[in-house]
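Subject: Interface between my chains keeps coming out wrong

I've been trying for a while to get a sensible model of this assembly. When I model each chain on its own everything looks fine, but I need the whole thing in one frame so I can look at the contacts. Pasting all components below, labels as-is. Any help appreciated, I'm running out of ideas.
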Amino acid sequence: MEKNKLKKLITKIFVKHKLSKKHALICAEALVNAELVGAPSHGLSRLKMYCDRIKKKVINPRPKIKIKKISKSITHIDANNSIGFVAADIGIKKAIKSAKETGFGLVGIKNSGHYGLSGYYAEQAVKKNLIAFAFTNAPPAIAPHGALKSLFGTNPICFGTPTNSKIPFILDTSVSMINRGKIRVASRTGEKIPEGVALDKFGKPTTDARKALEGVQLPIAGFRGSGLAWMVDILSGVFTGGNHGGKVKDPFDDFSGPQNIGHLFIVMKANIFVKNFNKRINENIKRIRRLPKLKGVKEILYPGQNKYKRFNYNYKREIKMNETVLNELKILNN
Amino acid sequence: MEKNKLKKLITKIFVKHKLSKKHALICAEALVNAELVGAPSHGLSRLKMYCDRIKKKVINPRPKIKIKKISKSITHIDANNSIGFVAADIGIKKAIKSAKETGFGLVGIKNSGHYGLSGYYAEQAVKKNLIAFAFTNAPPAIAPHGALKSLFGTNPICFGTPTNSKIPFILDTSVSMINRGKIRVASRTGEKIPEGVALDKFGKPTTDARKALEGVQLPIAGFRGSGLAWMVDILSGVFTGGNHGGKVKDPFDDFSGPQNIGHLFIVMKANIFVKNFNKRINENIKRIRRLPKLKGVKEILYPGQNKYKRFNYNYKREIKMNETVLNELKILNN
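Reply #2:
Try treating it as a single job with all components included. I did that and got this:
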């Protein structure tokens, strides 16, 4: 479907589900962006879930979002169980404003929900020549180091910086060895999953996707990745007032209450310490890209370059959706 | 040697090398702390190197450190090639002061040197009930993803938070699969190094430590770890005005000029968004430690617990040093 037509359709669906036009548009933009950057797992495939959560009253379509200004640089937001996109949109805009005015913006958000891709928010700051961290927690997916039970979410670490080119540096990396979606697909097709990414329910390493689904996913780099996931849970949950320590509900499976997810944005002016940040980052990237390459490697890429390529490719084309998603769209629009 | 006696000896050696008494004491504290927490690679084994760098005039023993206050929360420090400990000590203290006064403190340091353990600085903030990030870059040790040449340092990610107990949460993790020191030891003993941690000079995976030393170390988790190392290089080098992009000199091997390392401290009041942070973090840690454990795992530990145990154990004992270090101490003291 053509992207603007799709945006209109999503907006219409959200408005039908009681969101204001303004909020519906924010959500539609974020979902279509996920499709364009090649992350359909964070795009249309979640639309029905969001609508279901609204219907079951665990997302509040008309939230009374409280914005508490703590200082010129620091803001705390109580999202009142809004859909995550809306709270995060307000949050990153506040952080950007603070950073532009004072050099630094810090925004903590509580009582929010799944907000899509962290990189989407970091990118908004980077476009204003700001450096940004975005943290959010998520439902249990990976086991803390030494544990036989999942507790941390895939808890991405997201960092973005201007690059002096139109392609921003956006690192948006989960701390899980493998995407749960990939295990789900493999369990359907019967394919094996790689070694070292998951344990079965008895805590034994497995390459059997079905056994992995009953067991746990592993963090990257053992104790170190587990520590990074823990850090993200503390920053986005404990620190902001959001849920934490495994209490964030799975948005697809658990309608017993709102998710109460927390997000944290840390935004800084890129040229606060040096006048020539753009020249410096340009030189940094050039040096790294010029290194001798491993056999078979054409180009050393910085985080964000692949996404940008996908975006540009998809931007000129119709957005493709699978049968399931098309059917869901049809039903939601009825 | 008894730790206070050792501190006095180190102080005396640094004063002999033209450091002020105050600066010499700061360095002695940091080096003895590294021994106490069980990180001798960042302790006494580096003392001769620091002294050599002073003698060769690539560390400035009497630096004119410029402290530029950008706002109540933000400070930029030009360390004038001081020994890293001194600049970092000033920096973390400024960041702590700002965070206590305004909720957050941001300090960028340029023209500094190797500052020892990042966790040492984060811990100072945590003891004041603050959350802290500490970033520093380092000489080339790991190859960017796809490259056949080392460029990033082991670039640690360091994050600390109060825990409502006397044992702080201090994550201080390199993004390298393996410590270079371990490869050096294995190359001497002829032991094999693990698979997947290094490549030989042709870019082929190797378990031969000697070949690994000629080749490159790999980042954790491939593209993701490479991205994290890149992030740390940008934050501590490009952003602050320090060296970056592989230009930080090896302190042991390269006396052709100062290191010009950059450090970045981001410190935040733990209870800025919630009043009961300590109660929340305590609950968070309790939930995770209570999880069912993998076979053979006695206890789920948070980052910092092992270090604390080592510190307590070593605190009551003499500090052990090997023959090489003892000889170096003797010569430096002559």
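Reply #3:
Confirming on my end. The longest strand of chain A covers residues 104-112.
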